[in-house]
Amino acid sequence: MPAIPESIASILREPYQLNPEQIECYQQNRFIKLKQVLDESTLGYFNDIITRQVDSMNKVTTTLAERSTYGKAFLQLFNLWRENESIKELVCSKRLAKIAADLMQVEGTRIYHDQALFKEPGGGFTPWHADQYYWPLETDKTITAWIPLQATPLEMGPLEFSAGSQVIVEGRELEISDESELLIQQRLRVTDFTHVVEPFDAGEISFHSGWVFHRAGANTTDQMRKVMTIIYMDRDMKLKAPENKNQELDWVTWCPGATIGEPIDTPLNPVVWETTRRS
């Protein structure tokens, strides 16, 4: 496979400068949207590459009507960085990994895994949930880069956030389902957390922590809502004893060979950015 164009590679190497106010905003709300992280040509390049990779990996043959709420929400493909060298350049890029480290306030970041989330035309809503329910990770030093591969109006189902809701413990035990949509929505309704739902400009990326509650609306357009996500964790993240069957599966799938109580240092979890190398 040919190398990515140097003009795009140079953008992926270039730091994206955050100001103190943006870091403080993230620390309070546990999510932030950042404009112009990727330019038009870079976004178009990865839209094409990721779309072709998703098409080659997608095995879903059922219609939307035949699927569960979870199945209607999106087509979901994992660890594209292991399948495609061009996508690896994006997932492991210094530009995105440093943003993640700066927002989490850590000295380095590892990959947990990536996933493409393509919401089909007519695809359903994504229920309220917190991602870290699925992850056997010891601390909350986790962050997901949510990268729309096109401008995403409200009609396409962009990500929605309950700002600051990472402090709520109720609902953390729920997997993505009709139940999580109902119960978490009821809990959030009696709080004063701000519900943020906005369109995404082309090149705009959001970053959110593992415990902040979020959802996405249905895609009521006739176009695919294409999103690439990258889940980063603290370079020094340790594996915890799984608390549910999904965390057991994640251990085996995304950090095979890792040991409970020890840093997650496996070939599937490379360090992609750090301030200084450890001796």
Automatic annotation (TrEMBL):
<dbReference type="Pfam" id="PF05721">
    <property type="entry name" value="PhyH"/>
</dbReference>
<keyword id="KW-0223">Dioxygenase</keyword>
<protein>
    <submittedName>
        <fullName>Phytanoyl-CoA dioxygenase</fullName>
    </submittedName>
</protein>
<keyword id="KW-0560">Oxidoreductase</keyword>
<dbReference type="GO" id="GO:0051213">
    <property type="term" value="F:dioxygenase activity"/>
</dbReference>
<dbReference type="InterPro" id="IPR008775">
    <property type="entry name" value="Phytyl_CoA_dOase-like"/>
</dbReference>
